[in-house]
């Protein structure tokens, strides 16, 4: 049976660690009988290359990035971890995916002061950002998927790597006439980038996607896609 390596970025924030651990635990519950191991590309241990090497000696494995877009960590860290092992493969990052629209909308609806969309609202899809142009393309794809689900304008802002930065996107929305700017956090868990979203200047900021059922479903789909390669 193919083992699963759930690989996240890693964080020093206890809330972020707890969120990712909870998502991995839910994944293990969803896949009874499958070995599910946690790994990281930065900050935390064990490193993904170490876990991949260990599991490669026992059989096939899939590394599923608990990351919303491609970038350095998928193209370099995870790619390097799986390259030496013929039976270890990397799944695609979670986004963009139509199911993540459901998670983003749910997080907006859950906002305690939201009370539904109104005239003058504007949503900024708030992503972590990357210097990899493909990552920005994928975030724009996610924004394109989100727009039909919302009755208000949707633009994009980034915490790092790409432009416009979050504060610039919020300011641009206001300059265009928005009376209330809502940041839809397109981050997985509390941590550095979630903090940047909170400090973006938006009037309302949704919670990270975390353990939303749609996120878990996307993780499972990515694993299934990659497992077909390992078979």
Provide a descriptive summary of the structure in words.
- This protein has 231 residues and is α/β, with parallel strands linked by helices.
- The chain folds into 2 domains: 3-95 and 211-230, Rossmann fold (3-Layer(aba) Sandwich); 98-205, 3-Layer(aba) Sandwich (Rossmann fold).
- Helix content is 42%, strand content 17%.
- The protein is built from 8 helices and 8 strands.
- Strands 2-1-3-4 form a 4-stranded parallel beta sheet, with helices on both faces. The chain has a 4-stranded parallel beta sheet with strand order 6-5-7-8, with helices on both faces.
- Helix 2 (48-56) runs parallel beside helix 3 (72-82) and helix 4 runs antiparallel to helix 8.
- The longest helix is centred in the C-terminal third of the chain and has 18 residues, at 213-230.
- The radius of gyration is 18 Å and the shape is elongated.
- The protein starts with a strand and ends with a helix.
* DSSP summary, beta strand count: 8
Multimeric state: single chain
Q: Structural class, judged by helices and strands?
A: alpha/beta
Q: How many domains, in number, for the residues?
A: 2
Helix content: 40-55%
Attribute tags:
231 residues; alpha/beta; Rossmann fold; 2 domains; four-stranded parallel sheet; 8 helices; 17% strand
Brief rundown of the structure:
The protein has 231 residues and is an alpha/beta fold.
Write the layout of secondary structure elements.
Elements: E1 3-8, H1 14-30, E2 36-40, H2 48-56, E3 61-65, H3 72-82, E4 88-90, H4 98-109, E5 121-127, H5 133-146, E6 154-158, H6 166-175, E7 180-186, H7 192-198, E8 204-205, H8 213-230
Parallel strand pairs: 1-2, 1-3, 3-4, 5-6, 5-7, 7-8
């Amino acid at each position: 049976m193919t083992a699963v390596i759930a690989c996240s970025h890693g964080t020093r924030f206890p809330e972020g660690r707890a969120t990712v651990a909870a998502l991995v635990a839910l994944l293990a519950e969803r896949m009874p009988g499958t070995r599910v191991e946690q790994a990281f590309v930065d900050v935390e241990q064990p490193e993904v290359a170490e876990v991949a090497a260990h599991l490669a000696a026992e059989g096939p494995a899939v590394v599923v990035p608990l990351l919303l877009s491609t970038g350095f960590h998928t193209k370099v860290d995870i790619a390097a971890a799986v390259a030496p092992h013929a039976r270890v493969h990397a799944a695609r990052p979670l986004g963009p995916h139509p199911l993540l629209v459901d998670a983003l909308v749910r997080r907006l609806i859950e906002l305690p002061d939201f009370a539904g969309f109104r005239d003058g609202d504007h949503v900024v899809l708030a992503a972590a950002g990357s210097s990899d142009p493909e990552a920005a393309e994928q975030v724009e794809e996610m924004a394109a998927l989100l727009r039909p689900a919302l009755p208000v304008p949707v633009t994009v802002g980034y915490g790092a790597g790409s432009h416009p930065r979050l504060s610039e996107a919020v300011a641009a929305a206001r300059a265009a006439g928005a009376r209330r700017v809502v940041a839809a956090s397109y981050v997985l868990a509390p941590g550095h980038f979630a903090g940047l979203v909170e400090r973006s200047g938006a009037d309302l900021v949704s919670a990270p996607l975390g353990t939303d059922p749609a996120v878990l479903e996307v993780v499972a789909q990515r694993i299934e896609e990659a497992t077909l390669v390992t078979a």
